[in-house]
Amino acid sequence: MTKTVTDVICPFCGTLCDDLEVVVSDDGEELLEVYNACAIGAEKFLHSQAKDRITRPRMRQEDGSWKEISYDEAIEYTARMLTEAKKPLMYGWSSTNCEAQAVGSEIGEAVGAVMDNTATVCHGTSLIAVQDIGIPSCTLGEVKNRADRILFWGCNPAHAHPRHMSRYSIFPRGFFTGKGHAGRKMIVVDPRPTDTASMADVHLQIEQGRDYELLNALRVAFKGEKLPDVVAGIPKEKIYEVAETLKSGRFAIIFFGMGVTQSLGKNHNIDEAIAVTRDLNEYTKAAIMPMRGHYNVTGSGQVWGWLFGFPYAVDLSRGFARYNPGETTSNDLLRRDEVDAVFVLGSDPGAHFPFSSVKKIYNRPSVVIDPHETPTTEVCKVHVPVAFVGVEVGGCAYRMDNVPIETRKVVEPPEGMMTDEEFLKRVLGRVKEIQGV
Amino acid sequence: MAEYLIKNGFVFDPVQGIKGDAVDVAIKDGKIVETTALSSPKVIDATGKTVMAGGVDVHAHVAGPKVNTGRNFRPEDKLFTYKPKNGIERMQGGFSVPTTIRTGYNYARMGYTTVMEAAMPPLYARHTHEEMRDTPILDQGAYPVFGNNWFVLEYLKNHEIENAAAYIAWLLRVTKGYAVKVVNPGGTEAWGWGLNCENVHDPVPYFDITPAQIIKGLIEANEYLGLPHSMHMHANNLGNPGNYTTTLDSFKLSEGIKPNSKFGRDQVMHHTHVQFHSYGGDSWANMESKAKEIMDYVNSHDNITIDIGQVTLDETTTMTADGPFEHHLTELNHLKWANADVELETAAGVVPYVYSPNIKVCGIQWAIGLELALLAKDPMRVFITTDHPNAGLFIRYPRIMKWLMSTEAREQQFDAFKHKDKVIDATNLAGIDRELGLYEIAQMTRAGTAKSLGLSHLYGGLAPGLEADVAVYDFNPNEPYVPDDIEKAFLNAEHVFKAGVQVVKDHEIASNGNKRTLWVNAKVNENPQVMRDVKEKFLRYYTVNLNNYEVAGHYLPNSYVIEVDATE
Ligand code: SF4
């Protein structure tokens, strides 16, 4: 016999779908099928079943090979490394639950670490822009129930957030949007002809790196002022038309992704996109939302917000929280040789950081906590595999619209494996012992 | 648990009617007891000092999504505020929107031990509870917002009080909420379309209901359930010149309704931050105080309580579920604006704000708040708040006490205004020479608030059997003092006990306490229709499944449930 667990939350992307159905074996040990998830979400669940999964911590030897160690040894190494370092970097946090993030923050406070999450290489610029100008936003249900103008800017949900359009933004029929897709106008701004762009009513194929100009042109167009003939590769008639489309809607929403947060202009682009949204509120109702990537990158920003007051790049090394992106951000610290140990949990800098940063991790005492083998596990001294959050242990996660949802445990982790939270609690206990507090 | 005897302090306890007599207070097993019940107590010599019950804050914004937005989007609010960890004291920072850790410590330092979070969007209840869990020392509860909730709008449109009550009971249980909060009824739903409801008869777009119907219906549903607290109201038209008529119209909706609660409260409506709702005139040029008109009403109707929402003349961060108001504010000051509309439920806005003594309107607002308190005939029904952080910071409560207790302090503030004469002309404060005493302050910050919350069986006084929440202030009311001595002493209590644990000792944080979260579990008769409606709405319009909505008990590691039985 098998059993089906319903209302399961997908711990993959910031869409945080909560309607999955997972079929597990009667003994709760084996996960057999995943329904309702997109391909990447389903894979996340099924991956936990890999037969060659690593289930015990291991330490890199002189010759580069791995030696299995116990959790106790891994805890000892981690606690020593963190307490002995002058300024350890504790990076990641985007693919774990808020409970683990809170314990990790307490460790960071105790050892004077720099706490940073994956926003540092994706929506950190958005967070800076919000600090400049704020953000008129809403929950995804507002989009589902009210929005008739949807603008995707520099993002490709068809691939990166596969169920976003069907659950929230384009297709669903909501309370005031009974016609679903047919009642919505979809606009995509992207230099690439993506699968998302191919679905749009209007695709503005902007010149690479010209986002700020086009956003600014929209603000000009809202006011009916004069534009040059072509802005950012888009003819002015098209810009006036899009401006009119947005203004004439009842509820407009702009979703934006890394195509605009990490291109030329960075946070200034987002400033301007938010200004576009503010301006639109003079004429109709409008909101804007970052398409957050990891399923709980938003949560780590929330946890640090209430504990320290800053959403990322929090430097606790002086005994209090400092925040100065460009100085206290991971890559800047690594490349300036300012951190002397690296702890990674819930992300994969080995795959996403510049090579120069990865080399620095390789040259330092380092621990990575991750259920998977990743490029990061290849450069760290100790690898601690743990249970999958959202599959083998529950816990809170925040969707891209900041809505917190509690993920569910659907199967047992392999015998004897720790969860992130348990491992961190043990490290915190050991840190306190070493420090004699 | 340690026993304590707080000896010989000047005690102010409205519950027992003690007005500054030197009385001993005994603590055992977390409760106040008769002194004869102690065997070998630690003795605290409070000779020449003031002793009161722990403060109870009826309305502050200290945990949840909009508070955290305020923190995260204002790094400048942390400038020069950070305190490193020190012993058991954790790192803390932030001024108008402090971190959870600082929130707990700062309240405790003022002798406050219970604080209510005044607006919890139900969909974000989990977040609110996570923050409260990480706020040390304080007992807390949170009010879910109902005034723009689609279920409520639909039930009340047809005057289905029983259904509305069943829904309220369900939502309180799944969100672990404490009371029925209403913010700009109907207006916040209208804000979903960029609109507003400006008075109690302005219809809500699409829903075919008026704010008046929502207000009256929610009061009735609240009394149907017999909840500990009354309906908690933030009326329409906040912050606009001439709005006092809207406020009076809202008050009047409570007329003829009697409280039905076995928790000891006498009101059916608590109206919050009334300062923002007491404006005359029709523009910022001729805006004036209508505090007298408002207080005439409050003084003559004993089924209403209010809090003042005192402007403290600081830079701060405003935040409210009154979405259209925050948009209005950002249009006014052009500072940054965050907005968060919440599907089927509510909205919120956040905008930084500076209340400058150089601006006439700010001076008038300051005067109105104090007038409300000074015109109160019954201090058990009029409470000190700043609507933290909206009109000012909670750490200014002692400053407000100073202003209320001293005409000299008020004169000093008048003299510091750039437009002193205009402020005096537009208000009545300069003509009021009343000075409140510590007994009245204890009514406005402890006994009255605890009673209004339906918590007088736990907090607000020093009678045996109550929680051992006690504050000792280094302040001798019988010696001469200058006004600033009041602020200094009450900002920095010498000793504070929370449920019998000494959390402040010699002015320093001595324990992170064992905080509790209060919530109300109201039992109602089975209501298949409401449960069907809930299922249906979740299926079709929410983006979170019904089975993922409820806040599980483990988010409240130390929960205190108040059971209510409304099954007849
Ligand atoms: S869209 Fe994202 S959250 Fe939803 S199933 Fe796919 S990967 Fe999971």
TrEMBL record, chain A:
GO-annotated molecular function: formylmethanofuran dehydrogenase activity; NADH dehydrogenase activity
One record GO biological process: respiratory electron transport chain
Catalytic reaction list: N-formylmethanofuran + 2 oxidized [2Fe-2S]-[ferredoxin] + H2O = methanofuran + 2 reduced [2Fe-2S]-[ferredoxin] + CO2 + H(+)
Annotated InterPro entries: Formylmethanofuran_DH_bsu (IPR016457), Mopterin_OxRdtase (IPR006656), Prok_molybdopt-oxidoreductase (IPR050123)
Gene3D superfamilies hit by this protein: 3.30.200.210, 3.40.50.740, Dimethylsulfoxide Reductase, domain 2
Annotated ranges, domain Molybdopterin oxidoreductase: 53-415
Tree of life domain: Archaea
Gene Ontology annotations for the cellular component aspect, listed alphabetically: membrane
The keyword Oxidoreductase is assigned to this record: yes
CDD domains, A to Z: MopB_FmdB-FwdB
Top-level EC class as recorded in UniProt: oxidoreductase
Keywords, in A-Z order: Methanogenesis, Oxidoreductase, Selenocysteine
Pathway(s) it belongs to: One-carbon metabolism; methanogenesis from CO(2); 5,10-methenyl-5,6,7,8-tetrahydromethanopterin from CO(2): step 1/3
EC number of the protein: 1.2.7.12
Alphabetical list of NCBIfam families matching this protein: one_C_dehyd_B
PANTHER family, alphabetized: FORMATE DEHYDROGENASE H, RESPIRATORY NITRATE REDUCTASE
Function: Catalyzes the reversible oxidation of CO(2) and methanofuran (MFR) to N-formylmethanofuran (CHO-MFR). This enzyme is oxygen-labile.
Entry similarity comment: Belongs to the FwdB family.
Protein name: formylmethanofuran dehydrogenase subunit B
Lineage: Archaea, Methanobacteriati, Methanobacteriota, Stenosarchaea group, Methanomicrobia
Automatic annotation (TrEMBL), chain B:
Name of the top EC class for this enzyme: oxidoreductase
InterPro entries the record matches: Amidohydro_3, Formylmethanofuran_DH_asu, Metal-dep_hydrolase_composite, Metal_Hydrolase, Metallo-dep_Hydrolases_sf
A Pfam family that the UniProt record links to this protein: Amidohydro_3
Keyword set, alphabetical order: Oxidoreductase
GO molecular function terms noted in the UniProt entry: formylmethanofuran dehydrogenase activity; hydrolase activity, acting on carbon-nitrogen (but not peptide) bonds
Domain Amidohydrolase: 42-504
Keyword field contains Lipid metabolism: no
Highest taxon of the lineage: Archaea
EC number(s) per entry: 1.2.7.12
Transmembrane segments: none
Protein name: Formylmethanofuran dehydrogenase subunit A
